Amino acid sequence: MGSASVVWFRDDLRVADHPALDAAVRRGEPIVAVYVFDEVSAGVRPLGAASKWWLHHSLLALAGELDARGLTLTFRRGPATEVIAELLAETGAGAVFWNRRYALAEREIDSGIKSSLKEQGVEARSFQANVLFEPWTLQTGQGAPYRVFTPFWRACLGAKPPREPLSAPERGDVTPFGGPLASEDIASWQLLPTKPDWAGGLREAWVPGEKAAHDQIDAFEHSGLGDYVDDRDKPAVDATSRMSPRLRFGEISPFQLWHTMRGGVSGAGGAAAYLREVGWREFAYHLLYHFPSITTENMRPAFNAFPWAKPEPEVLHAWQQGLTGIPLVDAGMRELWQTGVMHNRIRMVAASFLVKNLLIDWRVGEAWFWDTLVDADLASNTMNWQWVAGSGVDAAPYFRVFNPELQAKKFDPAGEYINHFVPEAGTPAYPEPMVDLGESRKRALAAYEQVRGS
């Protein structure tokens, strides 16, 4: 076996605070950097269209960062188990390093590869890089996984503080792999929309990549953090960090965010509030690891008896396209379609409207968000939909039905957000509400009573 080191990039498209890359640099042998586009291995969920757009551009940005350090990012497509084996045969590498993933299918793939490599005498190591606290290190006093966020976050804050972020390697630190190595053209992966090209709004709203991620968090820290507590629920105000797609694709690590904001960990200001949101993401991964069925099944079995309505195509289409006649819901759905994200407060409102006012199964909405969000994250997306539906752990009470009209009065009182995305609201061109909010709320409560009775 040769001595090259393979660094397998996945949801960690960065060079700073990248433990697998750092380990390869420290090993001191030539480095093979590879990204494997795998949508065919058993259990792996194919990316949605918006996430594919982001992935394309983030991979190009990563290739540029590696190139600046003398490394070439090799692109391969296919089952990861086969691709990594082929790469080892081509390079004679003696080590493979990667950063850990937490969904069940990905864990099984990684575990199988690690066992196979060790049997061949190849060094195989995985690292903690994308969560602050490994899911198996935190448990309740009864030795069980946490199911409620507040005690979970309290345990996080009481645990050993997260490590310091690792520095990016310098050009002189690395030795590139010298042999010929075939790489696919990622244009052949067809990650970008072409017929039609619907990504114009995404291009206006985002610049994927590690450098853009750090520019963005620096701007937020210096100009947005002070007003974060007061303004984060106002959709018309640019008051959030917009880090969710950056974290999803690993352009920035939670360790970097933690240490950027660490002065406020124990306080009550913007930094503490912001880190609590990072903690909510940690909770999602905690649940994903311990309860992998959360991605497709109700966490509360009683909800298997919930009388979901059959999603009529025209009703679902109206929700998806922002044509429900409910201005705040429509504004959110149009923001999602145009920019690939939706303000978090409005995500809850739009999700609640689908699940509770229209009685459509949360999995239908989750699938739409999976396809249209640039930050579509398996852990967070499914946990948050179950939270709104009331079917998950730490769930909103079954009787909590977000009223879009009251939410608009409270968080968009001047109508700036609605007017931006739904300029025809209040005119004859705007459709009538597809349901009566009061009557549909009563239907939802009756349905939830049926679940409680079961």
From TrEMBL:
This is Deoxyribodipyrimidine photo-lyase. FAD binds at Y228, T240, S241, R242, M243, S244, Y274, D375, A376, D377. Binds 1 FAD per subunit. Belongs to the DNA photolyase family. The record marks W308, W362, W385 as: Electron transfer via tryptophanyl radical. PROSITE patterns: DNA_PHOTOLYASES_1_1, DNA_PHOTOLYASES_1_2, PHR_CRY_ALPHA_BETA. Its cofactor is FAD. GO terms for biological process: nucleobase-containing compound metabolic process; response to light stimulus; response to stress. It comes from the Bacteria. GO terms for molecular function: deoxyribodipyrimidine photo-lyase activity; DNA binding; FAD binding. SUPFAM superfamilies: Cryptochrome/photolyase FAD-binding domain, Cryptochrome/photolyase, N-terminal domain. InterPro entries: Crypto/Photolyase_FAD-like_sf, Crypto/Photolyase_N_sf, Cryptochr/Photolyase_FAD-bd, Cryptochrome/DNA_photolyase_1, DNA_photolyase_1_CS_C, DNA_photolyase_N, Rossmann-like_a/b/a_fold. It holds the Pfam family FAD_binding_7. Keywords: Chromophore, FAD, Flavoprotein, Lyase. Residues 3-132 form the Photolyase/cryptochrome alpha/beta domain. It comes from Subtercola vilae.
